[in-house]
Design brief:
Order of helices and strands of chain A: EHEEEHEHHHEHEEHEHEHEEH
Shape of chain A: elongated
Number of strands of chain A: 12
CATH architecture of the largest domain in chain A: 3-Layer(aba) Sandwich
Structural class of chain A: alpha/beta
Oligomer: homodimer
CATH class of the largest domain in chain A: Alpha Beta
Number of helices of chain A: 10
Chain lengths: 303, 303
């Protein structure tokens, strides 16, 4: 059996090259490749030779590739959905705890015990709803459970998420939000999920609720979120993503004490290829064996 | 069998009164009590009649009672060590994640991706040392494990802490710190633990290390901590306690971007009696049965 021919573009990366080598595949120029590992965004994406049977993208969300018309149905496409799930879950937990335990408020004040003490809440016994419970949701569920929280997972199919106390289909999102103490957004950005958090759904939450978004900015109607935060409809928001992104530095959300915005670092750029490498090596083995690939994109659906 | 006679001072609290009632005990004035449940601090602690066989204090750390000479060896004393362990552990996790995932830095800047992204670290694969691994350590260990961290527990005896990857006796604190990515302080304040974090032990840590203290301020030599933070010896500190406490509002630690200080809220005042009540009920049952009490104080040791 001849070895797989893999191109890594737009430039080589030691972790990815190591994975290619580990899988017994051969690094070749794009012209001769069966497989393209693309480490960039949609800008500069190359014209693909017919020899390319599979394109491995390195981002979890690929809506920008979809919008740019990069995907086609003449070959297999994979994204990195789930590869960064553990880190994104940890970041979601960090934002949720920083909010509920008033670390954010404390970082902006000096020993404000009279206001901070009564506002501290515990995850123990709280109900956390994960909207779009795929890889991040599966990784986050045991972390929340270790803190004593109950988890309600919401996903498209309603197929049970291991460890979640309850899994509901997306059609029952309102029911889930009504039960929520807090909400973590972990869904892809699609027509169905856009502005899933809006004036109406925010009103289903509680005055002590925190909303955390480690997925994509457009899941939240940010003007509605601002109104809810100013009006005391919910307690706060921890956002790793914004709409637009990057946000304007005079976005009014930055001026609110009950909001913390991290600059899209749930999966830090410096760790991206480290995290991707073992999944790529496994997918190369699967490709050679003719097996289904991890994180294959449903081209028509866009994720 | 006549019912236990319990006084609750300096004033009644519904959660504590409920626990007394649940245990089938009787509320009486202090003059007639076998048991005093004391919900205050050492100031105003009453002269005890000889009838009092057991005093249940409501704080986990009792060094202020010890310093005030309140404890005697003519009766049994219990503190609340361990009653608030779950909440304190959650707070420690919140401070650690807020630091390592740069939520603190992000709360004080606006989309500073160039500085924040490279500084984000993950707990997955990190080694977290818990100094003084009693109740808080036992509660924190599974939370850290759920995030993929390894836990080294350090306690007086070195007796294995369930779930910890390694437990070391306090005599091996230096060895533990040398292995640490991050440190959580959860020890009582005693002569042995005072200033356990000092210039010398800080130098055993790593430039990316965060130090979290949810125990007592004097465990840290704060001037040494300040030097280590300014000098890049460690990455940051998350403190729920200070020395002195409350701190001066112009304490230089407040001016550092890599420090977050929460105002002693790991166990918020508003939740104290809620958390204490089930332990008190259990201890009343044990007292009636002549069994050993939970969290009995070794009067000579001071905790």
């Amino acid at each position: 059996m001849s070895s797989l021919r893999v191109a890594v573009e737009p430039e080589h990366d030691p972790h990815v090259v190591g994975a290619v080598s580990d899988a017994g595949a051969e690094l070749v120029p794009l012209d001769h490749a069966q497989i393209l590992v693309w480490l960039g965004g949609p800008d500069g994406f190359p014209e693909l030779p017919d020899s390319v049977e599979w394109v491995a993208l390195s981002t979890a969300g690929i809506e920008r590739f979809v919008d740019a018309g990069v995907l086609d149905d003449r070959r297999v496409w994979t994204n990195a959905s789930g590869f960064y799930a553990q880190g994104c879950a940890e970041h979601a937990l960090a934002l949720l705890l920083a909010g509920t335990r008033q670390v954010v408020a404390s970082a902006r004040s000096r020993w404000a015990k009279d206001t901070v003490d009564p506002a501290v809440r515990t995850l123990r016994g709280a109900t956390v709803v994960i909207l779009g419970a795929g890889g991040i949701g599966r990784a986050l569920t045991p972390m929340l459970a270790a803190c004593g929280a109950s988890v309600i997972a919401v996903n498209r199919s309603g197929r049970q998420v291991d460890g979640a106390d309850l899994t509901l289909p997306a059609s029952k999102t309102d029911e889930a939000l009504t039960l929520a103490d807090h909400v973590v957004l972990a869904a892809p950005d699609t027509a169905e999920t856009r502005h899933v958090i809006n004036d109406r759904t925010l009103a289903l939450l509680k005055p002590h609720s925190w909303v955390v978004n480690v997925a994509r900015g457009p899941l939240i109607d940010q003007e509605a979120l601002y109104r809810a935060l100013v009006g005391g409809v919910i307690a706060g928001a921890g956002l790793d993503v914004t709409d637009p992104e990057p946000p304007s530095l005079d976005d009014p959300l930055f001026s609110l004490d009950n909001v913390v915005i991290t600059p899209h670092v749930a999966n830090p750029a410096g760790r991206l290829t480290t995290e991707m490498a073992p999944f790529l090596a496994e997918n190369l083995r699967r490709f050679a064996a003719g097996d289904d690939l991890i994180s294959q994109v449903e081209v028509g659906r866009g994720y």
